[in-house]
Amino acid sequence: MTPSPEPSESVRIRRVGIVAKRGLRAASDHLERLASWLRDKQMEAVFETETAALAGSGTAAKSYSREEIPRHSDLIVVMGGDGTLLSMATRIALTGRDTPILGVNFGSLGFLTETRIDELYPALQSVIDGKATIDERAMLAADAYRSRELFDSRIVLNDVVFTKAALSRIIELSVSVSTGLVTRVKADGLIITSATGSTAYNLAAGGPIVHPRVDAIGITPIAPHTLTNRPVVIPGTETIEVRPNMTTEGDEIFVTYDGQTGYPLQKGDMVAVRKSDRCLRLVKAPARSYFEVLREKLKWGER
Predict the structure, then answer these.
(1) What is the DSSP code string of 14-37?
(2) Which residues, in sequence order, are CB contacts of 71 under 8 Å at separation 6+?
């Protein structure tokens, strides 16, 4: 089991990084207001470069790239949706820091950006006071090998996904764990998901919802050719090795990371996915449990 949520008493906030979804003009009016609020609390606002442009000339705050801002922040406020938060989660992990994220959703409630704009300041105050609940979300590490040589390493929060090209036929993948071969999947693709990612692409593909405090990794086929190929949940201590079986010239198999970036695989490649040593520290909404988010997002109980 991953650690239970805990108060943020160990978080000492001096500088707050502010990152908005690219082009999110709805956030513009809130950015200078947030910077002013932080200054009144004797804290420094630090903007991501494109977010600073959204804020306009009214703020004189320092700005850094998305890659650099985690190194200059004790807390990052993300304004946008789950995709923006995912991109920052990876960047924080790559810096080796434990910078917590407070996700503020613009539009419908997100699974990760679950704090609404009207809840922003109470949520920030609870972090400053050491009363906020911090979720530690397990992340996935993926290492890709070609001719047994490591050529790519990633850290993701949600999932590693193997898919076919737009016009390709069904693809075939061999999936193994430490005890040996699990299965050969013939499908449109395959999702390796963390517990947090279970409510993302995995859910749309018919995979199970896994509570984020469960130490587990999910393996979910996408539109499998054989109906007996079903989702499997395995212990978080396992390493999953996925090998593309390319038997026909023109077969194309892609791997993508959190739906953000990816590349085509070649015959003989292998991608190993395991639980990362890094985790994401996510500030919870002040008065909303995980199951409340599920009920609201999935409209449970509604007719």
Answers:
(1) SEEEEEE-TT-GGGHHHHHHHHHH
(2) 64, 95, 97
C-alpha span between 114 and 134 (Å, rounded): 13
Distance CA 86, CA 56 (A): 25
Identify whether the C-beta of residue 101 lies closer than 8 Å to the C-beta of residue 69: no
Whether 214 contacts 175, CB under 8 Å: no
The domains of the chain, with CATH numbers, are: 6-132+284-298 (3.40.50.10330), 139-277 (2.60.200.30)
Residues 189 and 166 sit within 8 Å (Cβ to Cβ): no
**Do you know the residue count of the chain?**
303
Q: Name residue 275's beta-bridge partners.
A: 140
pTM for this entry: 0.90
Rounded distance, CA 101 to CA 93, Å? Answer: 12
Measured distance CA(50)–CA(35) in Å, rounded: 15
Q: pLDDT digits over 88-145, tens only?
A: 999 999 999 999 999 998 876 678 888 888 999 999 999 999 999 899 999 999 999 9
The candidate with the shortest Cα–Cα distance to 264, out of 87, 91, 144, 153, is 144
Residues classed as catalytic: 82
